[in-house]
Amino acid sequence: MSIGLQRGCVSLEPHSVEWETSAQVMIETLKNILKEVLVDAQHIGSTSIKSIQAKPIIDIAVGVSSFDKLTDCNDRLQEHGIVYRGQDQPDQHLYVCGDFQRDIRTHHIHAVLYGAKAWTDYLNMRDYLNAHEEEAMKYSRLKEELANQYPNDREAYTNGKHAFIVNILRKAREENPS
To answer: Which of 8, 29, 49, 64 is nearest to 139 (CA)?
Structure first.
């Protein structure tokens, strides 16, 4: 097992406990750097779902109190190899870690406002799939099909999961309206 994948590629691996360890190390690093800006940080994405295959890139959701205060920390984050990539989605800032010489990404850090819809969606997706193994296995099979179909087209792979993710988030909200 390894952590990291060349940018743009899609390759899945069976779940590894190494992913959880790496996520916890990164969360502690983020807490030490961001201090009062960080409200909470959680391991999310497929590597946080125990029973499925995933791209070996660790996703972390960082719930922050302010985007302005967060971006004020960009230099300190950069010193620790956490590189700001910009606002990849509305109301979300992306940071990446990895071996940039070889164009390999090991971590994606999704900074969102704590308590906002994006924050809740990340946690709901993870929690729902960890609580519903049959749904998790459907997601894993879909991911495998898409990875086989689009091994070098990350965008098509991601787009192919969209409808499934929207459906899971709807089910999660119905099960746990808050």
So the answer is: 49
Task: Give which of 107, 73, 71 is closest to 92, Cα–Cα.
Answer: 71
Q: How many domains in the chain?
A: 1
∠ CA 98-92-70, rounded to 5°: 75
Collapsing DSSP to helix, strand or coil, 28 comes out as helix
Show the domain range for 137. 5-175
What CATH number is given to the structural domain containing 80? 3.30.460.10
**How many Cβ atoms from other residues are within 10 Å of residue 56's Cβ?**
22
Q: If we measure between CA atoms, which residue out of 123, 145, 10 comes closest to residue 60?
A: 123
Per-residue pLDDT of the chain (178 residues; tens, 9 = 90+): 589 999 889 999 999 999 999 999 999 999 999 999 999 999 999 999 998 999 999 999 999 999 999 999 999 999 999 999 999 788 999 999 999 999 999 999 999 999 999 999 999 999 999 999 999 999 999 999 999 999 999 999 999 999 999 999 999 999 887 6
- Angstrom CA distances, 171 to 129, 133, 174, 177, stand at 10, 14, 5, 10
List for the chain the helix, strand, coil content (%; round to 5).
50, 25, 25
Which residue, among 152, 158, 65, has the nearest Cα to 113 in the 3D structure?
Answer: 65
